[in-house]
Amino acid sequence: MDKPTCTHGTHTRRHALKLASAGFVATAAAAATGATTPAQAGTEVYADPAEPALPQTDVTVELSDTALVVTDPQVDFLSPDGVTWGVVGESVTEHNTVDNIGRLLGAADSAGMTIAISPYYYYPTDHGWKFSGPLEKLMHAIGMFDRESSLSMEGFEGSGADFMPQYKEIIENGRTIITSPHKVYGPEANDLSLQLRKAGIDKVILAGMSANLCVQAHLHELLEQGFEVAVVRDATAAAKLPEGDGYMAALINFRYIANALWTTDEAVARIDAAT
Fold first, then answer.
1. Coil, strand, or helix at residue 93?
2. Of 53, 57, 123, 231, which is most buried by a Cβ count within 10 Å?
3. How far, CA to CA in Å, does 49 sit from each of 46, 232, 266?
4. What CATH fold (topology level) applies to the domain 6-47+55-273?
5. Among 263, 193, 245, 252, which residue's Cα sits nearest to residue 221?
6. 71: alpha, beta or left, given left = phi > 0 and alpha = psi -120 to 50?
């Protein structure tokens, strides 16, 4: 058996990009004919219930014990050049996710708040896994988040695994924590909890990609580890597939279990007030 390399996904990544382009051509055509696209009509779908049944809880933001945690702020999730744009692009655009993550990073950095990035990377050996779930199988097939090696940065710059360019100044400033990669969805296999505990953190403002996968999995694990977690609802997004709207699936669970559910405006205001 040949040794797996990251170049195996080149053709499939290009194919995925072609599919993404085709999807957006269809959306543009609908707009040109006056048809209503899901992105134009969808915000009402995500509105909170007028009379919620669950008690309301909240998180108090203090610079001494609160961190901003952003999952997967990477090209493959957030850029039209990324391999998932054909299925997440509508949701990313609808929620203004790219700009909202940038606003959170800017506010937290200006305030001197602890920032942690929990990224997704696949190395050549990860492609030798003997079993996987549906999305894992897809991600491996299209070369999503692929890196040449865990010990080399060759080919990283500008790749799908790279951070979005507008975030790099903050992410690479030497103060932001960049954890080891999570390998499926949650942070159980990386050092996020350790890094937060060592920084004296027990409250988390959580954002990033994608809502029903890594954000929700991080939420679950951080809660189990005893952190208070506020999710920023419009600083995330998710795929829309025949199997369902990932954002809606996540939003329901955010309402059920997060200690707080804020907009970016609310989160930025709280961060600014904590300075």
1. helix
2. 231
3. 9, 17, 19
4. Rossmann fold (3.40.50)
5. 193
6. beta
Lookup: tokens for 81? 């050049």
Give the pLDDT confidence score for residue 272 in this predicted structure: 98
Q: What's the CA angle centered on 148, arms 156 and 92, to 5 degrees?
A: 50
Q: Looking up tokens 């995500």, which residue turns up?
A: 46
Is-cis flag, bond preceding 150, omega within 30? no
Q: What is the pLDDT of residue 80?
A: 97
Q: Please report, for the chain, the start and end positions of each structural domain, with discontinuous segments joined by +.
A: 6-47+55-273
Residue whose token pair is 């998932």: 84
Tokens for 153, please give them: 């940065």
What is the pLDDT, as a whole number, of residue 12? 47
**Antiparallel, parallel or unpaired: β 244-245 and 114-118:** unpaired
CB atoms within 10 A of CB 21: 13
Q: How far is CA 251 from the centre of its chain?
A: 14
pLDDT at 1: 36
Q: Over the stretch 13-67, which tens digit does the pLDDT of each residue have? A: 444 444 443 443 333 333 333 333 334 445 789 999 999 999 999 999 999 999 9
141: which DSSP letter? H
* Weakly modelled stretches of the chain, pLDDT under 50: 1-41
End-to-end CA, the chain: 57
Contact present, 119 and 218 (Cβ < 8 Å): no
Residue 257 identity: I
pTM of the model: 0.83
